[in-house]
Specification:
748 residues, alpha/beta, 6-stranded mixed sheet
Length: 748
């Protein structure tokens, strides 16, 4: 434990803090008796600084300060994988449905680091906050019960439905300067608004950390963004990140941490900084971070970190500025001409704005305040105001506008802007409206111009915490059971994937050659599919249904190489699997950008896929593929993408000598009997090659547990009974598996 005086000195010296309000940081709201050990962080930083013999940037200090072995870890940006020890893990209900079964199968009795589950993705935005929340609790009762009981059993904190969006809860309760936090959501970097390194990962990565295993991350490069001047008028933090995204494009930040600095930083609120870091995911950045400054004064405001924040996924309202715009319209007798919905980030935000009158202003202008959840941003919107095929436009302050993402309608054009501009456009009812130059006509017929909004950065009367929505895991969970029905359509216990057979991959059939952008939304759609995230076989029915087939320019229509008939991608993959035909996907640039959802890797593996060959990958998706025993490979010459046709077959050679930095050979076999040979690159290290050989990272973990099994020799107890999981029907696995609950220290 670090005394306050040393903590202040260290923050000022090692992190470059100009002003410290950190006493409250020492006490975690969810775990009030645990403290932050900055002394170890400082020790590691000093070791690395001396080794590298150069100054370290802010982000480097945090990352290298969490090295598992700072004295011996090789450090080379963009090439070497770092072994890190994150402080905390956060999962949301959609990804936790798969992450928790993976953790359960590890055999650990408790998580090794503080971890939480956040229920925010499964609530569909329909009628309004309370009604939507009640409906979600009813529809998703089985999933919520599983996550709550699994959390209680394995020491994971559980934020109930309605508590808020994962990123906002992290910002309010767990982010702090110097933290290294991983979350199973691509927008976890939101926590960079409070000076933390917060990184989005797949569920298998989260399981490793929860199991106490060092987490691997390719040593990130650093991109510095110097901010000058100050925000004023109608400009907002959203404009900053949109400008950066325009410069770097969707993959310009890949493999790098974006570090903001300069005098312009001081004009941005803490939640504004979080907004910028959150959307850093849209440029492929590993994460983004701001230096600690006086705008993070929330740290001294309450017991932990309590922020008046913009919801991170849904209608991103920095409530005061949007309400200020709405109030001007009401003063002139106007209401919104367009549908206007507001989603708030956490339970304390609606409680506070109800008390302060902002919520009523937004309702009076015609807005609908939805539940504290992701809602429209992730496609949880059963939209009925637009007919199928009808072109239309929506303007949001969300963080992502992939085709069909918000309403599952490909004809919808989605534009991203700031919350106050969204509010102004909803009032004007036209995209042509420019609040800086254009006038509105009041109810009295007089023209008026909206003034640039202004609002308090913090509520004058502090925050109203609202309802207590946090479930603390019990100290003694020995009597806790986790129920999983074998007949469930939402939950399914995982079976291990098959191991590599020791041979090259011969005559792989091409399932689909993807044309253009292929995000994780194209590979594994969200929206109505979210309820199947805990059931691998059911969720696999959405595999690549949004990807465009280069052969016919259509989505979800591929040729079956055996029958020569065109059909849905999942059906074709299932046909190949049933007939023992292994397959490969061919992709374009930045394949798998977007969400951290590991289902986009689990599904192709489950349905018989062996490799994904592309021009380039998004970071999280590439790692997810490796974790599940697939081969993410890239063309040594990107133009070789054009040599492959959907009717070809591929043979991938060199797997017996699979080694880091050594390309694999690919033979393209055309139907006319001719062949071409190309080279495929990869980024596997030795540990990741072991995952491939074992069939998955999870399989490799189990291989390392074999000594524990021998200690239970002669014992005939089903694995799930040993782990405290109760099947409410016949056992899902015919072969009992044995595990020693005492093994975890050997892997730490």
């Amino acid at each position: 434990m670090v005394p306050y005086s040393l903590l202040v000195t260290w923050l000022q010296k090692a992190l470059g803090v100009r002003q410290c309000h950190v006493a409250s940081v020492l006490c975690q709201r969810a775990k009030p008796n645990e403290y932050i050990h900055y002394d170890l962080l400082e020790k590691n930083i000093n070791i690395v600084r001396k080794r590298l013999n150069r100054p370290l940037t802010f982000s480097e200090k945090i990352v290298y300060g969490h090295l598992d072995d700072p004295a011996n870890q090789e450090i080379e940006q963009g090439k070497i994988y770092l072994r890190l020890r994150p402080d905390r893990v956060a999962t949301q209900d959609a990804t936790a449905q798969m992450a928790m079964p993976q953790f359960i199968s590890s055999g650990l009795p408790k998580v090794a680091v503080p971890s939480t589950i956040h229920c925010d993705h499964l609530i569909e935005a329909q009628l309004g906050g309370e009604k939507d929340l009640c409906r979600a609790k009813d529809i998703n009762q089985e999933v919520y019960n599983f996550l709550a009981t699994a959390g209680a059993k394995y020491g994971v904190g559980f934020w109930r439905p309605g508590s808020g969006i994962i990123h906002q809860i992290i910002l309010e309760n767990y982010a702090y300067p110097g933290v290294l936090l991983i979350g199973t959501d691509s927008h976890t970097p939101n926590g960079g608004g409070l000076g933390g390194i917060c990184i989005g990962v797949g569920g298998a990565d989260a399981v490793d950390v929860m199991a106490g295993i060092p987490w691997e991350l390719k040593c990130p490069k650093v991109i510095g963004v110097k901010l000058t001047g100050s925000l004023s008028g109608w400009t907002s933090s959203k404009d900053v990140i949109l400008k950066v995204a325009g410069i770097l494009t969707v993959k310009g930040g890949t493999g790098a941490i974006v570090e903001y600095h300069g005098l312009g930083v001081d004009s941005i609120s803490c939640t504004g900084m979080a907004t910028i870091c959150n959307m850093g995911a849209e440029i492929g950045a590993t994460t983004s971070v701001f230096p600690y400054n006086h705008r993070m004064k929330y740290l001294s405001k309450t017991e932990w970190v309590q922020l008046a924040a913009a919801p991170i996924q849904a209608m991103r309202i920095q409530v005061g500025r949007s309400a200020a715009v709405a109030q001007q319209a009401l003063a002139h007798g106007l209401k919104c001409k367009s549908q206007f919905t507001i989603t708030l980030g956490s339970e304390q935000i609606p409680a506070t704005i109800e008390r302060d009158g902002y919520a009523q202003i937004l309702r009076d202008v015609g807005g609908i305040v939805l539940a504290n959840a992701c809602g429209h941003c992730i496609g949880q919107w059963d939209r009925k105001d637009i007919k199928k095929g009808e072109k239309n436009t929506i303007v949001t302050s969300y963080n992502r506008n992939f085709t069909g993402r918000n309403d599952a309608k490909p004809e919808t054009h989605a534009f991203v802007t700031s919350p106050e501009i969204v509010t102004a456009l909803a009032i004007a009812g036209t995209l042509k409206f420019n609040p800086e130059t254009d006038f509105l006509t009041g109810k009295d017929g007089k023209k008026f111009k909206l003034e640039a909004p202004d609002a308090d950065e913090l509520p004058r009367s502090d925050f109203d915490p609202g309802q207590d929505t946090y479930q603390q895991p019990p100290k003694d969970s020995s009597g806790q059971w986790v129920d999983v029905s074998p007949t469930s359509q939402c939950l399914q216990l995982l079976e291990p994937f098959d191991k590599w057979d020791g041979k090259d991959l011969e005559d792989l059939q091409i399932l689909i050659k993807v044309k253009g952008k292929c995000t994780t939304d194209h590979i594994s759609a969200a929206g109505p599919w979210l309820k199947f995230r805990g059931h691998l076989d059911n969720i696999s029915n959405n595999l690549l249904i949004g990807a465009i087939n280069i052969e016919n320019g259509k989505a979800n229509s591929v040729r079956n190489a055996v029958t020569q008939e065109f059909g849905p991608v999942p059906d074709t993959a299932r046909y190949y699997k049933k007939h023992g035909i292994r397959w490969v996907v061919i992709g374009d640039e930045n394949y798998g950008e977007g969400s951290s959802r590991e289902h986009a890797a689990l599904e192709p593996r489950h349905l018989g896929g062996r490799a994904i060959v592309t021009k380039s990958f998004a970071r999280i998706h590439e790692t997810n593929l490796k974790k599940q025993g697939l081969l993410p490979l890239t063309f040594a010459d990107p133009s070789d993408y054009n040599k492959i046709h959907p009717v070809d077959k591929l043979t991938i050679q060199g797997l017996k000598d699979f080694a880091p930095g050594k390309p694999l050979k690919c033979i393209i076999k055309h139907p006319n009997g001719t062949q071409e040979t190309i080279l495929l690159n990869h980024t596997f290290n030795e540990t990741q090659i072991e995952w491939f050989r074992a069939g998955s990272a999870q399989n490799r973990m189990k291989e390392l547990q074999q000594y524990g099994r021998s200690r239970l020799a002669g014992c005939h107890v089903p694995l799930w009974t040993l782990l405290g999981v109760r099947s409410t029907g016949p056992c899902a696995s015919s072969e009992p598996e044995l595990v020693d609950p005492a093994w975890p220290p050997a892997l730490r």
